[in-house]
Amino acid sequence: MRNVLIVEDHDSSRAWWKDHLDEIFPGVEVSAADTIAAAETLLARHQFTLVILDINLPDGSGIDLLQQINAEFPDTYVIICSIYDDDKHIFASLRAGAKGYLLKDQPRSRQLDQLKEIVHGQPPLSPGIARRILTYFSEGQESLREIGKHPVQLSGREKEVLSLIAKGYSRPEVAKLLEITLNTVAGYTKAIYQKLNISNRAEAVVEAVKLGLIDRDIE
Amino acid sequence: MISMVCAGLTSFYELFRLNHLYLGARKGERLLKIVPYQILVIAGVIALSSMIISGSYVQQQPWLGITLAPAEQGLLVEQVDHAGPSAGILYVGDAISAIGPVYGKMIAVESDDVIDDPDMFQNFEPFNAFLSRQRELFATLKQPTIRMLLGDGRMVHIQPQPQRPLLSIPWRFWFSHLFATTVLLISMAIWGMQKKMVATQLLFISGISLFVASVLSSLYIARELAFDADMFLVLTELNSMAVRVFCVAGLGLLWYYPRPLAAWHTFLPLLATVEVLLVINEVVQWRELPFHAFYFDYLFLASLAVFLGVWRWQQAKGKPIEQAIVKWFTLPVLLGAGLTMLVFVLPVFYFGKPILSITASYMVLLLMYIGLALGVIRFRLFDIERWWIAVWSWFLAGAAVVTTDAILVGVVHLASPYALGIAIFAIGWAYFPLRQWVLLKVFHRSKGGIEDYVPLLVAHFIRLDHGADPVFWHHILQEIYKPLSLEITPRTIDTAQVLDGGERLVVPSLVSDKQVELKHADNGRRLFDRDDVKCSQMLLDIAERTFFLHQRYMQGVSNERKRIMRDLHDDIGGRLLTLVHAGHDGSRTAAEALSRLREIIYSLDVEQKMTLNTAVARWRIEALERCETAGISFEWHWQDQEQDVELSPRHFLNLLLIFREALTNVLKHTKAKSARFDLTFTNEILHISLWNNGVADCRQEKMSGKGLSNMCTRTEELGGKFGYTCEAGEFCIQAEIPLNRASEDKVSHA
Q1: Does the beta-carbon distance from B620 to A169 stay under 8 Å?
Q2: What is the secondary structure of A40-61 as a DSSP string?
């Protein structure tokens, strides 16, 4: 990680990230923005490898900015850092393409540990989110079905991993039960994140076509 | 007389007023609406004039002042009028053998001489003999003095009065007129409302002909002994014709209503032609018919009616409207016709005289007409709607006042002004309550007015929850109309409508592009009518307003809740966060406060849906992590529910806090080596048992007072039980919490 952008309206939090990111990513360049507008300006000028993004910003929702970054800079790694810990916000962030989700009220040291885990390919997944994802892939994706498109499917193994996590099993327990390594479990989790985002983008396109916002040819 | 005119005017005024009200309701049909009232009045006038004319004709007949009955030989005196010319000469029980002028030939009387109608004779010969005897007897009765030979050999002289008094006219005469009037009014009223329909035209013809038949026969059935033979012949032939017109029209009704049984349009003309030929044969006495010269064709007509009725019944299968018609139209018609056959025509065939007299047969036919009128009210036969009854009830009110007044003046000889007053009071107090009662009984509406449904509406509104589902309107319609089917169809209508002659009622839905279609009201027992349209429209207006008001209210509540949640998060949450990360002593408390704040915010968010399976999974990962941190082995028993239970945010939060507190309590035993978590959900009760084996001495074991009371309070708040045990070094916390819908409601209302 060389270039990191912090989008956060709390001065103390912003300052803290600036001071401590160096501990896990030595030699990192940290930029900071306190509004979406400021973030957009910075994004237009520089290339960032990681964006740590708050949801509640003075001039809008971080999730909208997340979608924008995902569309314009697909290689940029976005992690949401929020005070919201409910499934609704987390699920919406994951669908919009977040690679991970940090809770602001965790001890700072734990936040840094988790960030490191996420960046090194260990994305977190809570039981509630796992359940939501399972339901979404079995029932959701309505707009794709409506136009006769095949909805995005989860593989058998991905479903198994999700089911166990949904029942409250920890990642090491899942690895043990399925006789796979922890890294493989993380791999599945990443794939699930990806599929969620792919499906979300496909649905967004379908909706846009239906609303006449974009041309069918582009689809 | 003046008072009668006043009473008449009052009732006309009422008619006019009512008429005006209806006109106000539907201006476009102004002309059509005036006419039915006029027709009813015209019918009333015709009936009254016929009664007056017939009455005066009967009064012109010579009078002996006796009532005669057929005896084995000759006639028997049944009654003697005390004021009549026979008083003191003839006595009840005397038999009369012959009658004649003082000077001249005696005419032997026969038991048949008091027969109701000469067409009851089986062939032409006795018919003609009867008429010639009537001629002679009538001529005799016109003499100033007559001789009478009695059964015991006595010969008496009587001076017949040239005119009979009004009160001596037998009740059968009045009854015939009452019957004639009722039939005329019913048939003309129905026709008046729907003049262009073949069915109502046929009903009209049948009513008129029955009216004519009974008015004509009233003249000769009122005779004492003899009647002008030429007049008798004309009247009896006309009566016979009128009865046949009635029969043909009635069969036509069975054939054409509600739609022709078959596409055979020559049915009615053919039938009419046959009957015309039969009547001509009767008049010219050309050929004797088999069985009975006069009634032969009635057998055929009755069989035809039964055949058409059965055919109609067959056709009506699976069609509720036609079944209603069979029930309220075909059956009364068949029943009336059938009974008349049984008590009148068939006995005449076999015994030469009917079981019941003509007047009693009228009674049967009258019942048939009343059945028809009820059918009109209840099932909108001939598509006439219920306001028909309003016309009737006002007409009858006026008629009742006029009649009562006439009786008081004419019979009781009361002075006119008093008579009118008494008549109006009597009718006011007797007729109107009676009318209300009859209306209530006749309509027998399980449905009531809008006021009856208000409690139902309110109950539904109260049940409207956060979702504000427009389906509640469909439930209301379902409960009120109890239709055989209720469908939501994609069509926009502005107002409620009755379709297919009452088979369907369509009502706008609360969802803009949909309508609710109800089929067959009251489980198919009745048809929808205009009242239903009015009532459902009013209910819809209330439901719509309430629904949108409720929606706006809920939207407002939701917006406000979101604003509070956002403020809590952004403002208080942000400040607490600063404290959490400040690193001093208060950090831990701040973190707890933030966590609690979040839980409170969560419990405010009604859009969040959490289920038992998810909640338990959350507890598991939390318990696992904490056990791992504490270095305690972890054992978890729980089976995911196939039918997951949805938890309200409040339930979810309370359960989480109970579990978390219990977990803390179990894990505080530092010597514990293992922890076991048993969770089951049976009979809608969640059982939570948390065990650990780290207790050295149970007697010294005490739970922290605050933790215990917290858990206890929360469990009781959810309507559950809480307890702990300590045995043989094992410490166990147990909680039982009901999770059924009822307990959730109880908690949320608490």
Answers
A1: yes
A2: HHHHHHS--SEEEE-SEETTEE
Provide the pLDDT for residue B440.
67
- Can you list the residues of chain A whose pLDDT is less than 70? 1, 140-150, 203-219
Across A130-134, B184-188, B718-722, least confident range: A130-134
CB-neighbour burial class of residue A169 (10 A; exposed 0-12, middle 13-18, buried 19+): buried
A114 backbone dihedrals φ, ψ, rounded to 5°? -65, -40
Distance, in Å, from the CA atom of A85 to the CA atom of B644, rounded to the nearest integer, reads 23
Helix (H, G, I), strand (E, B) or coil at B612: helix
Cβ–Cβ below 8 Å for B577 and A105: yes
Q: How confident is the model over B656-714, as pLDDT tens digits? A: 888 888 888 777 765 778 888 899 998 888 999 888 877 666 665 555 556 677 888 88
Cα separations (Å) of A196 from A193, B563, B571? 5, 30, 32
Interaxial angle between packed helices A127-139 and B612-630, expressed in degrees from 0 to 180 and rounded to the nearest 10:
150
Cis peptide before B258 (omega within 30 of 0): yes
Give the C-alpha distances (Å, rounded to integers) separating B701 from B221, B658, B689, B729.
113, 20, 18, 10
Burial A33-53 (b: 16+ CB within 10 A, else e): bbebebbbebbeeeebbbbbb
Is residue B591 within 8 angstroms of chain A, CB to CB?
A: yes
* Residue B72 per-residue DSSP state: S
Instruction: Tell me whether residue A29 is exposed, middle or buried, using C-beta atoms within 10 angstroms of its C-beta: 0 to 12, 13 to 18, 19 or more.
Output: middle
> Do residues B41 and B16 touch, judged by C-beta distance below 8 A?
no
Q: How many CB atoms lie within 10 A of CB B360?
A: 15
pLDDT at A218: 41
Hey, are the CB atoms on A167 and B617 less than 8 Å from each other?
yes
Give CA separation, B352 vs B42, B289, B339, in Å. Answer: 39, 15, 18
**CA B155/CA B547 separation, integer angstroms:** 95
What ipTM was predicted for this assembly? 0.78
Alpha helix ranges (H) inside B411-529: 416-443, 450-463, 471-481, 521-524
CB burial of residue B467 (10 Å; 0-12, 13-18, 19+): exposed
Triad B733, B737, B741: Cα angle to 5°:
170
Which ranges in A123-181 belong to alpha helices (H)?
Answer: 127-139, 142-146, 156-166, 171-178
| Alpha-carbon span B256 to B247, nearest angstrom | 14
Q: What is the mean pLDDT of residues B27-38?
A: 51
- For residue B384, give the nearest of B374, B394, B398 by alpha carbon: B374
Nearest chain A Cα to B638, which residue?
A167
Indicate the SS3 state at residue B635: strand
End-to-end Cα, chain B, rounded Å = 76
Contact assessment for residue B464 and residue B485, using Cβ atoms and an 8 Å cutoff: no
Mutate to test the interface with B, among A10, A90, A105 (most CBs of B within 10 A): A105
The C-alpha angle B158, B159, B161, rounded to 5 degrees, equals 130
Q: How far apart are CA B724 and CA B193, in angstroms?
A: 83
Angle between helix A87-95 and helix A182-211 axes, rounded to 10 deg: 80
Is the Cβ pair A88, B607 closer than 8 Å?
Answer: yes
**Tokens representing residue B700 in the block:** 């010294």
CA distances from B226 to B54, B130, B620 (A): 16, 10, 112
- Are A107 and A81 in contact, with CB atoms under 8 Å apart? no
- Whether the predicted pLDDT of B62 surpasses 90: yes
Q: Residue A25 CB: number of other CB atoms within 10 A?
A: 18
3-class SS at B682? Answer: strand
Pairwise CB contact (< 8 Å): A108 & B624: no
What is the C-alpha separation between A72 and A69, in angstroms, rounded? 5
Q: For residue range B122-172, what is the model confidence (pLDDT) as tens digits?
A: 889 999 999 999 999 999 999 999 999 998 889 999 999 999 999 899 998
